[in-house]
Amino acid sequence: MKRRLSTILFGVVFIAGLSLLLYPTVSDYWNSFHQSRAIASYVDAVDNTDEQKLDEMRKAAQAYNEKLLSKQDRYEMSDQDKAEYESLLDVSGTGVMGYVEIPSINVSLPIYHGTDNTILQIGVGHIEGTSLPVGGASTHCAVSGHRGLTSSKLFTDIDQMTEGDTFKLYVLGETLTYEVDQIRIVLPDELNDLKIEEGQDYCTLITCTPYGVNSHRLLIRGHRIANDAQGLIVEDVKQVQPLHEAIVLGILFLVLYIIICKILSKTILYRFR
Q1: What secondary structure does DSSP assign to 37-79, as a single string?
Q2: SUPFAM superfamilies from the entry (predicted)?
């Protein structure tokens, strides 16, 4: 009896340990699949919207950015300001205003309005009070994401980016390419590096640092450059990749689980004979 209980206990502990070991990987692939689905839904919404409507949405976002230039405290929003903000660039009705691609660290993530924690668990958020991501002179968009989550990679690896790297924003069917020209570490309340500079077209990626401590903020700023010819083709491939990887990993995990259960069943039956 003791040997039977030991065998069962070993099996339970083994499966539990294996599940804990695989959880970060499985969860990351699962979330990558949903992030790709969110991007695909956004792309479909853009494709199914006529160009005149898209142009109107771009102009509304540009007008909003122009108003920010004269706003004294652009990070403080009234209920009316917030309602206006959340209505802009929301072509899919899901709160996604576009998506960001960072080729050097193999990241592609939907960009949502705002930086509520529920948003930052599933994607990256546009920082309220910064320019909307439609580009143009005298704009500075800022996008924030978590790093170090066990459930999703998100911005975990952006500390590996260096000056000269590029990243892209895809918004309303247009591609905006930025080249990293400044990397800074600041305190959470230091906002000077997010200021809008006259004539400049900037976008800054933001995450917490140091890893696991999160006492400061890592700011990776890029200035707008001309698009390369391959951006959209690369992105189309990346949208499919997480689904394939998640399916393969899920099948392997299921097969392993079935094998372990069969071994335990045979062992238990043998003990009872």
Answers
A1: HHHHHHHHHHHTS-HHHHHHHHHHHHHHHHHHTT-TTTT---H
A2: Sortase
